[in-house]
Amino acid sequence: MIELLTTHYIYVLTFALLGLGIYMVIASENLVKKLIGVNLFQTAIFLFFVAMAYIDVDGASAPIVPHEGTPGEVMVASPLPQVIVLTAIVVGIALTAVGLALIIRIYAEYGTLREDTLREVRADE
Amino acid sequence: MSSADLLLPLLIAVPILAATLPIALGLWFDRTGWYVAAATTGGLFVGAVALANEVYTGGNVIHRLGGYPREYGIELVADEFSTLIVLLVTAVAAGVLAYTRRGGPRGNTFYTAYLLLVSGLLGISMTGDVFNLFVFLEITSIATYALVASGDGPEAAVAALKYLILGTVAASMYLIGVAFVFMATGTLNMVELAAAIPEANATLIRAGIGFMIVGFAVKVAQWPLHTWQPSAYHRAPDGVTPLIAALVSTASAYAFGRVIVTVFGVDYLTAVPNLAPIVLTIGCVSVLAGTVLAVIQTDVKRMLAYSSVSQFGLVIAAYGVVVAGESETALVGAVVHLVGHGLLKAGLFLGAALVATSYGARTVDEYAGLAKRRPFVAGSMAVLLFALVGVPPGVGFVGKWYIALGAVESQLWPVAAVIFLSTMLTLAYAARLLEKMYFTPSAPADATHPGTAATDGGTTDADAAAAIRGAESADPVSVGMIAVVVVAAVAAVALGFAGGTVADLLEPFLTEVFN
Description:
Chain A is mostly helical.
């Protein structure tokens, strides 16, 4: 078990962060914190993608760093996951922006950011 | 080959570029949005028909973006399955546009979001790359969140935020699935993946499948992950609900089917233990839960939204049958039901929007006596409801028939029983609405609520027709709006007759999947 944890620490870290994010989404009553939870959830996936590029090639260096040694012998991590993560980050930013805009609208209408208060206010109407 | 493959990137890029126009032109002119959107959607529809002509006569059309080969670049693919969805998206988008001309929502920002949504949906239909699929899913979703939030009142914002949080988590789940599959195979292209997956590390692939199924179950609104859908459909503006109800979940369900049949492959999935029972259970439980919840609703839009949960459950159950029994028939059923349901729901929600605009009627009880006041709308809605229940020759019957046939062929009797039971329950809520419309006299007290008065100038054909009738020109409902609902009803019946043709058109795709 311990060995599994130490050899597969990327999975452990990723899923700890994923769990933290989803816990915030579910348990937090504050809408902004919920959105932070969503962001945390996504960040865990981004880290997972970046770490993944190094899994097959141990000791590889980042693709953008200039290397010493003869060409053809240098181990380079796959650049594709990093490109993917860049795109996914942009998507995440757009989502956060839309989410924050919605939260501002909700705050302006109901005067609260807490979900329990929000539920009470909406039940009264 | 001709330059027909250029149609693929154009179908996606044109609406994105056109989406900037309503806001840019809006700095100088009011109300340019509709014209930009109409011109773009019209062009897209023509393009889609040309593409369909190419695909159904000459086979798959493939475009490599930037000329990069499959291993490095992104491919856009139009095959028999995706072309049907492209046709559905452009047709429904054009129909909804005919409604919003008079029925609203107006304003240039609405049309910007609308065009982005259409672009995302076409992207989902045609992409040949699993990560690109994620990006288009998110473009579609972001546009949908904005459209849902544009509804009147703060409740729309709450519904949109709920949808945003659930939808983002779902899309992220799909992304984790992509990460696992990529880790096992080192490629993102669907065709390359299909070739690489059988030899890849089975544990990683299965983890990927699991995450993808959860992600799609939320996006397609399967019980118990459906909770975002009724509030989102209910709170969205009347002109937006037909669009998102007919297309957004349909595109996600299409993507799920695409991932099952093209990426993982039916042969591979059949060998994965417990996969087919899980997918079948998700689908069947959603069918029953959706219909039962729909029966107890009083609000028409909410009722139709829960009905969507059950109808998509049917599609997911059909995928389960495809995986469990390698059934071609069930796949045809899933495709026909997907397209048919998109059309039916668009028509029904447009009808509901029309009634709400004219009389402010939103609950089932308020539909009393509608057949007298609006014979065409009530008649069309009746036809659409019968088609939804599955009365032949409506398109709903054809889809259900193929799915049930596939289930029986694969010895999956419980699925056939669930389909039968859900048909009875669907009849229960459809009949309630029909009874109100045709056999209950309208309450004398509720005279016509004046809807939002039309302030839009201009003369399209529909407006001209309305103007000739003079006295009714103040009516908030234009002839064009009624015509769209009637056309949807006629198309639902016509497609029902054409069910066999669709199966023939799909034939090359099926042989490709099941050989």
